[in-house]
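User: I'm writing a short report section on ligand binding and want a predicted complex to refer to. Could you take this sequence and cytidine-5'-triphosphate and write out the structure as tokens? A short remark afterwards would be nice.
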Amino acid sequence: MQLNGKKIILGITGSIAAYKAAFLTRLLIKEGAAVKVVMTPLAKEFITPVTIATLSRNTVLSDFFSYDDGSWNSHVDLGIWADLFLIAPASANTMAKMAHGVCDNLLLTTYLSCRCPVMLAPAMDLDMFSHPATVRNQEILLNRGNIIIEPSCGELASGLSGKGRMEEPAGILQKVISFFAGGGTEADTEKYAALRGKQILVTAGPTHEAVDPVRYIGNQSSGKMGYSIAVELANRGAGVILVTGPVPTELVHSSIRVIKVKSADEMYRECIKWFPECEACVMTAAVADYRPVVTENKKIKRGEGTYTIKMQPTTDILKELGKMKKKGQVLTGFALETDNEKVNAEKKLHNKNLDFIVLNSLQEEGAGFHSDTNKISIINSDGSAIDYEMKTKPEVAVDIVNHLSELIK
Ligand code: CTP
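Assistant: Sure. The structure tokens for the complex follow:
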């Protein structure tokens, strides 16, 4: 119930994707949100208010007053009530009217009166989406601080294929959850805007250093922290390059390019290839510090005595990125320490030329590799530190991404 007590106005406009608003309503309710729905007149041609009213457990609002008894549907009260105005799907027509202050239906008057943040999930044909008029309207809305949930690429109702498909309800729900996890206030919309259109490199998971064709030396990293950071960045409109070591999780997100690697050396090569094109890098991977000097090409046979593997150091990827770092790029990594934690983490921060470092404590129960929760401190290059509570990894990702968004230009 991650949206417990949150009050959301869901605006539905006239688009084929309006049917997905039924699933979205259900998901919001299941997470504990109170949902009031406003539909444009055309939206009712695509999905019936009966369906939406049943799922939202509230009467659907569409007209300025009731034709039966003349009672007034106050868009002002509605706007004051809400913590978030989410418009999904948002048609090209509604976006154009919002951009220019036209208010010829209840959804639009609610937009003009509401005091809460506004999130839109556009849905339209690819040519409409890329038309200069729509691009301009989108810019106007973004500059006003409205949050736009990027549509994805794929098959469209017109039969054409391209960008314009509304984000799936589960994806929209995730964005709403992240938004509230980050505070959910007007000020947070700035943190969202800071990352829009930025390219960010994230590394995750362990590395496997081959001993022979079937064996490797690895570690227990699950990749969860890095994957949560990648999703959080992508949810805020950043393009993410996720270089990941071997983990069981599959991640599919239209804004995340996943590059799978096994060894520290492969990870190093991908990182130095992508970092120059990125505005920031978050290095969460648990990179092996040593690899076998020799990788046997045949499976090692069992013998009588002990077996020794001679190891040599791997490249410190983060340190190399620190040397490559250009003005304006933000570089951050993690430190896993067992003793003298803050002092050691700060040493790593300076040694690797980082802008901040995330200290992961192994002392805390529920924090670390296999767990779904984590307890971190963020240490800045001036030595100042922020200690956070124990949180779930997606919540920790919100804190880290918030911190990053304040440093990124
Ligand atoms: N790191 C890296 N390349 C390596 C080793 C570590 O890029 N070969 C990165 C990690 O991804 C992490 C940071 O460096 O972001 C710190 O990793 P950590 O294991 O805590 O420290 P090390 O530098 O390996 O030092 P030590 O193991 O001695 O604590």
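A remark for your report: The chain has a mean pLDDT of 90. The pocket of cytidine-5'-triphosphate is lined by residues 264, 283, 285, 287, 289, 314, 316-318, 333-336, 348 (CB under 6 Å).
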